[in-house]
Every structure is written in structure tokens, then in C-alpha cells.
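Follow-up to my post from last week.
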Amino acid sequence: MKILFAMTLLLSLQSFGTQSKSNFSGFYDPKDVVNLPLKDVSNTVFKLVILKGAGMFGTAYSIHENILLTNVHNINRCLLDYGMADTGYDGSKGPLLCKSLSLIDGKGNELTTVELLGSNSRHNKDDKDFAVIKVNGLKAIPISLSPNGPQIGSSVFAIGFPSTTFRSPQKLNDKMIVLINLINIVFDIENKIKSLNQNSTSQDLFTTWMTDGFQKLQPLVKWNEFLSGSILGREWNPLITWQTEESLVYRKICLIISSTLKQILMALFR
Amino acid sequence: MIEKSQLKNSKQDLDADDSLKVSKARVSAISGNAVLVEGDATPGSSGSAVVDTSGNAVGIVFQIRKVGKNENDICLLDALMTDFESIRFSYCPSLGPTVVSSKIIFETLRLWGIKL
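User reply:
Got it. Predicted complex:
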């Protein structure tokens, strides 16, 4: 039942990945955007490297010299480091160094020493998901922040770094395909073990099934990491440990796969 | 600050490293501090600048939502996103980013003692 549940979940997620790919595509080609109201966006809008090596990115933009605005979940790792994910930060202790964050400018240069100046709570219910960060020595061209906000019906431009994060639909879809392959193999092994209990199967045939199954699993599972509790290898860790909705799905799936595989192994050696 | 006279023909600056993108969008609804925008966004867009035609920032992208046919219909994605394409959301035809209004940002920065 667990396997069937997990497969259903995975198939629905695969469907999500495929569908969202088409929904998320369609960023306007820059050539279609005329009179863009910024002269040099490469010195204004920055790619925020959320956790080095994790492949997760967000966007931040300059609102005053070396002060940038971004949203809370982009800097959540920094808040977690200071135990402030639930409360946010009001700036009362001065700038806080965000060791896990760095910036890349529009020309590909990496900038470091990101400091948190202020932030709302990660889980605030008031739609105030924004944070202010400071980057020393940054020569950014700021965008003037409107004190009035936008008007309904008005045209606007969103300027940022879409489709570059680990959570991009294509990469999500790729990971889902790996997971589906993995769970199909586990499902196959489990079915064969169940049939083994009901029929008198020869030891040779059983050995062939198991060898075949584990050979298929071999490229997908890193066994030393699996035995230490991480089923999909270290490259998944940033996503699995990240506090996002997607990571909850991955963690649930990994728990199901891990539990089933362990049951199979226990059945084999009892 | 950027002058309006400077704000012309900057398309050569865009997409220089194949990642910075500009999306045309339209403000479709405002609810409290949240501004619903009809446009495109992906998770990497979080934190993107939303600027008006004068070059002023009017908000920041923080979430992706579906927008209903009625402007008051806001279809939040399920927390696990598993019912993204389910019947529950089928009446929400378009996908768009949700933006924090610069108005509340402006006010909050003053509370935090951050001067612009």
C-alpha cells in the first residue's frame, strides 16, 4: 500500500513537473521589451546565491547604494542561523553577517559579505515577505522605491533571475524521473518477494531477481549514504534539508522509499 | 537614482548571462499588502524587482499564485503542490507572481530605522 501511495504521489508530481514546465515558460523575450525603465540592470538587480553549492538562487535588487531588497525565504538560511526564522529581525542588534549567502551581479561577478539589516518572519500572515540586506563595497544603481505602491491595471515589469534555481520545473521534473525509476525498481523487488512467499520458487530464480533488482538500484542509490540515513546521495541534501514546500514532498517520498527498502533488506536476511 | 531620461533601450543589458530576464506584467488586484500581478514567474524569480513604467520600484515578487477569472479569486498553491493541476484549481486560468507592495516596504523600513 505504501508503494502504491508513493507511486500515486510521484505520478502526480511528475504531472506537476510536466505541466508546470509549460505554465512557467513564457518569459518575454528581451527584444519584445522596449523602453525598459532601467539603464543598467546588471548593476541594479542581483542573483542571490542562497546556499553555495546547492544550486538555489533568488533575486535581490538595489534600493539604496549598497542596500538591497529581497524576499524572506531567500534569506531564510540566514534567519535560521540566528534563530530568527519565526520572529524576523528588526535591526536592533545591527547588521548580521549571513555566511550562507552571496550575490552574483549581472556580469557574473561574485560579491560576498552579505549582512542582514531587517526582515519579517518567514511565516508571517500579513503578506510582508521581504528583507533588507547590505553588501559592503557594492556599487549598485538603486531603484527608487515608490511610497505609494502600484495601481490596479497599470503595466509593470518584473526583473529577476527565473528558472535558475534547483527548484526549477525542469530540474524538479528530472529528479522526479529518478525517483520514479527508483520506486519502480523497489516496487518490482517487493512484488517478487511477495510472490516468493506464496509460491515455491527456486533459490536460483530468487537470487536472479535480487541480483537484477539491486543492479538496477546501484546507479540510483549510494549505499554507504543510504545506510547512514540518506537515500539519494549528498547532492540531494540541500533540497531535503531546505525549509520549502517541495522539500517536504521529497522528504516524505524518501522516507517511504527508505522504509520499504529496509523492509526488503530485513526480509532477505531474516 | 535612475533618471527617466536614462531609461531607454536597455535591452542590450538584458540576458547577458542568460539568466536575467524581464517580464511584462499587469497589476490585476490588490489585497492588503499583497499585489496580484498577471505575468510569469518561477521560484528563481523570488525577490525580483517589480518596476512601473517610470522606473520606480512598486514591489517585490514573493510568491506564485493562480489568478481566478474573478479578480478576487486567488488560488493559493497547495502546500505540497500535489494538487497544482487538480480540479480545485481548474477555474484559475492564469499563473502570476504575488508582489509585496512598496508602500508597506517603505513604511516598514522606517520602523526598522533604515533610511533611504
